[in-house]
Amino acid sequence: MRTVVFDGGRLLLLVMWLNLLPQTDSCPAKCVCYNEPRPTVACQQQGLSSIPTEIPVRSQRIFLQSNSLTMVRSTSFSSCHNLTVLWLYSNNISYIEARAFYGLEKLEELDIGDNNNLRTISPTAFRGLTKLHTLQLHRCGLSELPVGVFRGMVSLQYLYLQDNNILTLHNDTFLDLANLTYLYLHNNKIKIITNNMFRGLINLDRLLLHQNRVIYVEPRAFTDLGKLKSLFLFYNNLTVLTGETMDPLASLQYLRLNGNQWICDCRARTLWEWFKRFKGSSSELECYVPDFLAGRDLKQLKSEDLEGCVETSQIQTNLFGSKSGKFPSTESPLGNTIPRCCLRDNDKSSILSGKSRQITNNPLKEKENMSNTKFKQQERTKNETQIKQNDGPLGTLSNNLDKTLENLHPEFIENPESATASNKKMKKCVKKPKSDAHCIKSQGSTLQMLHFPVIPMIWISLAMS
C-alpha cells in the first residue's frame, strides 16, 4: 500500500514539473522540424502556395524551395530573429514587399533564385540584412535593379544575378558592397559598361559578364577593380577595347575575351600593347576585320599589322550583316565618328570641326574615288576641253581618256541608270550612232571620241564651228 502511494506522489510531482517547463514550438503542417545540427524547418516540395504562419521562432534554417509560393510579405518572417539560412528558390514568387526581411539581422544566406516571375524588387526589400554574405537572384526575369537595392549590405560576398534580362545597371549600384568578392552577371542583356557601374567593388575577385550584349566598355569602368583576378567578357558584341581601360586591373590572372568580333587595326594597338605587359592567362582574340587578318589572334600580330584603319562602312557590313547572325540589331558599336587613330596627321584637326573625309586603306577604293572626282570634273568642264584642243588633240585626248576609263567604276560604263543625264545621252549615241559627225555635234563629249580611232580633221573643224 505504501508503494502505491509513493508512486502516485512521484507521478503527481512529474506532472507539476512538466507544466512549469516552457512550451515546445509546434512544427507547421507538411513540414519536418529538427534541432540538429541547427533548429531547422524543412518544407520543400510540399506544394505550398503561401508561407506557413506557425514557424518556430527559434528556427535558424528554413527551407521552402520548390513550392508554389507567390509572395513574400513583410510579416512572413518577422518573428524569426535567429534565422541564418533562408531558401526560397524555385517557386512562383512575383512580389516581395518592402522590408520583407527586415529584422533578420542574423541572416547570412538568402536564396530567391529561379523565380521567373519576379520582374521587379522593392528598393528596400533587403534593408537591414547587414550580416548577409550570399544572395541568390539568378533566373528571376529581372530587367533592372532599383536604385539603392543593396544599400547597407556591407557583409555581402557573393552576389548571383546571372540568367536574367538586365539591360543596364545604375551607377553606384554596388557602392556599399566593399566586401563583395564574386559578382555573377553573365547571360543578361547589358550593352554598355559605364564608368561608375562597378564603383566601390574594391575587393572584387571574380566578375563574370560573358554572354551579354556588351558593345562598349567606358575608359574608367574598371578603376576600382584593382584586386580582380578573373574577368569573363566572352561572347559579347565587343569590337574595340582599349589598353587604358584594362590598366587598373593590376591583379588580373584570368581573362576571357573570345567570341567577340575584334577590329584589328589602329584602334586595337593600345590593347595589343597592354597584352605585352599582361602576365596572366588569356583566351584568343580572333580578328574579324580587316579581311587579311580574319581569324588571327590579336595578341600574336606584329606592330605593322595594326598600322591601317578599317573604314566604318566595311565594319558595319561585316559585323552586322546577315551572314554573322550574332548581333540582334544593326546598331553600330562605333558610332558615326572616325577614331582619331584613323585620321592622317593633316586630318586630325577635323575632329574639332566635325568635318572629315572618308579614310580607307583600300587602294582600289581610293583609285575609284579619285576616278569619280575626275569624271565629275570632266563633265563640268567639257566645253573648256573642246576650246583647248590643239593641232594634235586626238592622240593626247585618247591617251588621257584611256587611263581615265581604266579607273572608272563599272557603273559609269555599264549601268546607264546610275549615270547622269549627259551620260545617258552618250550611251544612247554609242548604241545607235547616226553618224560620226552627229555624235560629236550632239554630245560635245571627249569620251565619245574614243569610239572612233580615226577622225578626219575636217570633222573636228565642223564640230568646233
UniProtKB/TrEMBL annotation:
GO terms for biological process: positive regulation of Rho protein signal transduction. Keywords: Cell membrane, Cell projection, Glycoprotein, Leucine-rich repeat, Lipoprotein, Membrane, Receptor, Repeat, Signal. InterPro entries: Leu-rich_rpt, Leu-rich_rpt_typical-subtyp, LRR_dom_sf, LRR_TM_domain-containing. SMART domains: LRR_SD22, LRR_TYP. It is found in: Cell membrane; Cell projection; Membrane raft; Membrane. It holds the Pfam family LRR_8. Residues 376-385 have a biased composition (Basic and acidic residues). Residues 353-397 are annotated as: Disordered. Residues 1-26 form the signal peptide. It is a lipid-anchor. The keyword Hydrolase does not apply. GO terms for cellular component: cell projection; external side of plasma membrane; membrane raft; perikaryon. One of its GO terms (molecular function) is ganglioside GT1b binding. Residues 353-363 have a biased composition (Polar residues). Belongs to the Nogo receptor family. This is Reticulon-4 receptor. It comes from Austrofundulus limnaeus. The gene is rtn4r.
